[in-house]
Amino acid sequence: MWFRRDLRLADNPALVGALRAHDAIVPLFVLDPRLTRNAGAARMTFLLGCLEELNRSLEGRLVIRSGDPRQVVPRAAAEVGASAVWCAEDFGPYGVERDVAVSDALERQGVQFTQTGSPYAVSPGALLTGAKRPYQVFTPYSRSWLSHGWSEPIATPSPSELQIAPLSSGELPKRPVVAARLAPPGEHAAQRRLEQFVDHVVDHYGEQRDRPDLDGTSRLSPYLKFGCVHPRQVLHRLNPTNSGHDRFRTELCWRDFYADVLFHRPDSARAPYRREWRDFMVDSGVQADVRFDAWAYGRTGYPIVDAGMRQLLEEGWMHNRVRMIVASFLVKDLHLDWRRGAKWFMQHLVDGDLASNQHGWQWVAGSGTDAAPYFRIFNPVTQGKRFDPHGDYVRRWVPELASSPQGEIHEPRATLRATVMSSVDYPPPIVDHAHERDAALLRYRTLRTT
DNA sequence: TTTTGAGTTGTTCGA
DNA sequence: GTCGAACAACTCAAA
Q1: What is the pLDDT of residues A159-215, one digit of tens each?
Q2: What is the percent of chain A where pLDDT is above 70?
């Protein structure tokens, strides 16, 4: 049983399938340098924590190997004399290619390769328009997604069903030391958070999901990323007649939608989905690098932007509303390539998921599916006032501004005055939003007319 | 094939 | 202070 993005025992079709079809299984996880190379310490720490817990659930017999799965998996199968390898399907650009190669290699040595289940409620490729084409617009996709539906969660194997071949496990790598306050890893923590979300949060999801100062979101993204919980299990707990539940279900649909889009257009992970955006002018050079660093390390002088970027560095997570604000700032105020921001997010997010991340960024940049109108440019001050009305979120992540009065905390100029008065080290705004907004609109108009 | 209705998340300006 | 209009067409999906 080759675990990948399904680090759980509950509702795991491949695990159940393998246990039913065979006398005993050998659970395997492969640390693929290709996938861990771009993951920062936060995601690696979280992943290793998930593996530690999975190992405990598997009686300490999880086999961990490092290397290219194309060699590692067939070699491990031969070593243990496996007749078959079971795993879930992967629909990412790299995963698809890798699995074809693994399948071929296994076939050559007479080992069956069976893929069942996937990390999504509705698997990529399952839904097509009436003209048999992939969906490019969210709303029709979501209608189709709802009418297609999904299966109920399947039972967790009982201890007596969990027949694991006695085999010494590979050594788990040491977890990097991370100062960050990460979400607790693993399947049990995922269940706990799901309970809490269902009991106390989701009823108010509609009104509070955009408030970074409150605990108004699911915070399930890291668990969904690594499959500590499956969306089926979450959907099973929702009551669609409640508007907050319905709203959250839509967010799970977005996750499936972007996975579907990337499946049909694997190139869109690295290049604009709309090809005419290839020539969109972005800034580069030393000045651009300076601005990027100010953004990345939370020194732009715009409090809500800096709060978000610092939360990312410390927690490996950022509130969704703030992700949009900082993304808009990078693209529309700093005129930088969305891919620079997307890469930074992928390095630092615990929940960093290629499909959701790249397409979320492309949505903001305007180059993706269902793109925002080009004139929809977030004003970081207005957004801050509207969604962090008391300034609590900014005060938490930008301690320099902790003593700013509530009415001024989102105003760069006012905070500048406050910081001069108190000689606090908070930077002045690196750009003038009104000016950069006009500059961005001009560039967008140029793209349209050429 | 043609037509028609519709499309996550905003801001600014002027009445 | 509040409110509605302008900002732009364009393309997708289905009837």
Answers
A1: 999 999 977 666 778 877 776 688 999 999 999 999 999 999 999 999 999 999 999
A2: 96
Nearest to A321 by CA among A366, A384, A368: A384
Q: Which residues pair with A28 in a beta bridge?
A: A2, A63
pLDDT at A446 over 90: no
User: For residues A36 and A62, is the Cβ–Cβ distance under 8 A?
Assistant: no
With CA of A370 and C1' of each nucleotide, the nearest comes out as B7
**pLDDT > 90: what percent of chain A?**
84
Q: What is the per-residue pLDDT for A240?
A: 86
A36 CA, B9 C1': Å apart:
32
Mean pLDDT of A152-159: 96
Q: Would you say A367 and A374 are in contact if contact means Cβ atoms under 8 Å apart? A: no
Amino acid at A305: V
Footprint of strand B on the protein (CB under 7 A): A 137-139, 210, 250-251, 254, 320-321, 324, 360, 363, 370, 372-373, 375-379, 382-383, 386, 433-434, 437
Cβ atoms A188, A53 nearer than 8 A? yes
What are the residues facing A24 on neighbouring strands? none
Is residue A59 pLDDT above 70, yes or no? yes
pLDDT confidence bin for A41, thresholds 50/70/90 = very high
Is the model's pTM score more than 0.85? yes
Reduced to 3 states (helix: H, G, I; strand: E, B; else coil), residue A364 is helix
Positions of chain B reached by protein Cβ under 7 A: 6-12
Q: Are A235 and A249 in contact (CB under 8 A)?
A: yes
Q: Specify the DSSP element, H or E, that contains A28.
A: strand A28-31
Q: In Å, what is the separation between the CA of A378 and the C1' of B11?
A: 8
Cβ contact A53:A185 at 8 Å: yes
Report the candidate in A395, A273, A377, A389 with the shortest Cα–Cα distance to residue A335: A377
For residues A258, A259, A260, A261, the Cα torsion angle rounded to the nearest 10 degrees is 50
The tally of CA atoms less than 13 A away on the side-chain side of residue A100 is 6
Residue A349 in contact with residue A322, Cβ under 8 Å? no
Helices (H), A13-68: 13-21, 33-36, 41-57
The pLDDT, as a whole number, for residue A403 is 86
Report the alpha-carbon distance of residue A236 to residue A219 in Å, rounded. Answer: 17
Q: Which residues contact A306 (CB under 8 A, 6 or more apart)?
A: A298, A299, A300, A397, A398
Strand runs labelled E in A172-244:
none
The residues, any chain, with a CB within 8 Å of residue A295's CB and separated by 6 or more, are A305, A309, A326, A329, A330, A334, A336, A341
